[in-house]
Design a protein that fits this description.
Elements lengths: L8 E5 L4 H12 L3 E6 L2 H15 L3 E5 L5 H10 L5 E4 L14 H29 L2 E6 L12 H21 L4 E8 L5 H14 L3 H10 L9 H11 L11 E4 L9
Parallel strand pairs: 1-2, 1-4, 2-3, 4-5, 5-6, 6-7
Length: about 260
């Protein structure tokens, strides 16, 4: 299936590994020129080299922290007018809300709510002028089914979801869509980090926690990052212009609701 985005330009945040990397890989496979940003130079450059070798697509790297004004300025200097924007940032630490300070909350809101909003603000008007734009925010299935130990993430990402719900209805008439991808348990470092905290709190082994988590997934397995990347590419496609303001859950069937 031709997604109709060959030759488009994309910024993919936090894309040196995990779900961000999967999105960058799949967009490159569709012929999209990708700008990858992450903090770790060695891992980022290795990921970009692998994508170039596989796809032959032009890939640019920016070593910076996208959650800072300086990091956002650096990536926008390289690609000031992307056709596609995939926002993403590492989730805040898990734990008990009694342990979190005001600084912890501000850091979570900065990374997982305000950073995407700032990037959208910097790019959406040019997308409107060109009459093409696809913005995808990587959030979390916890937005629809909050996880107790991820309170920082629950709160910050829910705020972003509310913001997107309003803005996405204003931009879609110009063929600029804004949607959210909500991952459940994917086989990434974040899954292991959460399991380690649950193991610490419960006194169980990490292996026991991971086994129990997998057993709770109706699909009987954890998600593969490549599956997430393919879903992202579809939302970025030329044919997805009638879909906006949506929260697409990819969790193997865990979420029990109908809406």
């Amino acid at each position: 299936m031709d997604l109709g985005i060959k030759g488009r330009r994309a910024i993919v945040c936090a894309s040196s590994k995990g779900l961000g990397l999967a999105c960058a890989q799949q967009l490159a496979r569709e012929g999209v020129e990708v700008v990858m940003i992450a903090r770790g130079q060695q891992v980022l450059e290795a990921a970009a080299s692998a994508i170039r070798a596989e796809t032959g697509t032009h890939v640019t790297t920016v070593v910076a922290d996208v959650t800072t004004p300086e990091g956002r300025a650096a990536v926008l200097a390289v690609c000031p007018d992307p056709d596609i924007l995939v926002t993403n940032a590492g989730g805040p630490k898990p734990g008990n809300f009694r342990e979190w300070t005001r600084d912890d909350w501000i850091a979570a809101v900065d990374a997982n709510m305000l950073t995407p909003i700032e990037l959208i603000r910097a790019t959406v008007d040019k997308m409107i002028e060109r009459r093409f734009g696809r913005i995808v925010n990587i959030t979390s299935a916890a937005v629809k089914m909050p996880i107790e130990i991820l309170g920082l993430s629950n709160g910050a990402r829910a705020g972003l979801t509310g913001f997107v719900a309003g803005l996405s209805r204003q931009t879609v008439a110009h063929n600029v869509t804004i949607n959210n991808l909500l991952p459940g348990p994917f086989a990434t470092d974040r899954l292991l980090q959460t399991a380690e905290r649950l193991a610490h709190d419960s006194g169980k082994t990490i292996e026991a926690v991971m086994t129990a988590r997998k057993a709770a997934v109706p699909a009987g397995r954890f998600g593969e990052p490549a599956e997430f990347g393919q879903a992202c590419a579809f939302l970025c496609s030329a044919g997805a212009g009638f879909m906006t303001g949506q929260n697409l859950v990819l969790d193997g069937g865990i979420y029990p609701g109908t809406l």
